[in-house]
Every structure is written in C-alpha cells, then in structure tokens.
Amino acid sequence: MDHLKAVSLCVESYNFSDNIWSAFETDALVLEDTTGTWICFRGTESTPKPTKKGWSNFFDVLKDIRIFPYKTILGWWAHKGFAKGAEAWVNKFINRINKYKPVYITGHSLGAAIAIQSIPLLKAKGVSVSEVVVFAEPASWYKGDDYLYRSLGIPTTSYLNSNDFIRAVVPWAKTGVYRTYLNPKGWLSLKAHSAKAYQHALTESVLQ
Fold this sequence. Notes:
Elements: H1 3-12, E1 20-23, E2 26-33, E3 36-41, E4 49-51, E5 54-56, H2 58-65, E6 69-71, E7 77-79, H3 80-93, E8 103-108, H4 110-124, E9 129-135, H5 146-150, E10 156-161, E11 179-182, H6 195-207
Parallel strand pairs: 3-8, 8-9, 9-10, 10-11
Antiparallel strand pairs: 1-2, 2-3, 4-5, 6-7
C-alpha cells in the first residue's frame, strides 16, 4: 500500500466530492483504481454548515464526545461514538463495496478511529481488507479488546506526529496497533494534528 497516497487521500477527503459516501455524517472518500478500492474516512469537521436538510457536522462532534464504553455488534468493547459511526457507514454501504478487488482503508483523526472500528465489521461481511494505514488515530478500544483487532492479522500502520495532542486523548483506551511515530516529541500541538501536517511529516520521513 502506498502510504503517501493514503495521506494524500486524507487531505483530499476534506474537500466535498461526488465520491464522498456519507452515513449519519460519517463521511468517506471512496475511489477505485487499478490497484483496488480505496476507502478514506474523513476526520472531524467542527464548523457547522447549512444544508437543505439542516446543519451538518454536528454529529462529528457528537461522535467525538461519546466516549462511553459500547459493546459492538460483534461483542467487542469500544468508544461508543467511533464504533456507532463505523456501524452506520458499513451497514449503509456494504453492498456497494467491490468485494472482488483488494480494499485499502485509511483515515485521519476521527476518521482514523472509525476506519479501525470498521475493519472487523467489513471482514465479518466478507470484505477482504488488504491493508490499513491511519493518521492521528484516537484510542478507541476498551477493556483490552485491542488484542482482538490485532488477531485479525490485517497489516496496519497507525502514524502519530509525536507532538500531536491526540496522543493524550482517551488515556484509558488503546489503539488498534502500536503507533508509528513521526517528528521529534515536543509540546502538545493542535497544528501537528492536521492532515496536511501528516502529509508533510510523512513526505519528509520518506525523503530522509
């Protein structure tokens, strides 16, 4: 999997596009090319925007703050907002995903957590996920159930800028896999959390 392409898709996912598939304001950029199907879950959009159906982006913030333990439909314990977002998206779009091509999953921030939570659901419904690469993933597994994610055996990389504030969020939870750190560790920063900051950091890492 091309990790630079993955982070580029994360940046692109914040632009509105006909290729954005949305369910309960869980948004993913979905593209097919010769290598397979790419699904990139978009992160939090905290600025409300008016639409014909009302105000959008409210549920992004709601998903972030629903930190209560939630027993998923597969019986695993997770961050309620992230897990419910993944369930809503997978249930709506499972029949639109091409199961005969490799599927690559990526995402940034809220989208990274939803991406990770979507993997067991997709696998249970017959989608063969080839690889997962996420950026700025908040911890989303509770009660030690992160080991169940690892037991799926799907190659997964979780990049974290060492000074990204997200490393301190939900301190009692665990990420799906151990994080791969970018940049020197420093004071916690909001700027280090942006998708573009990850694109720059990963590009610099590759060039070194």
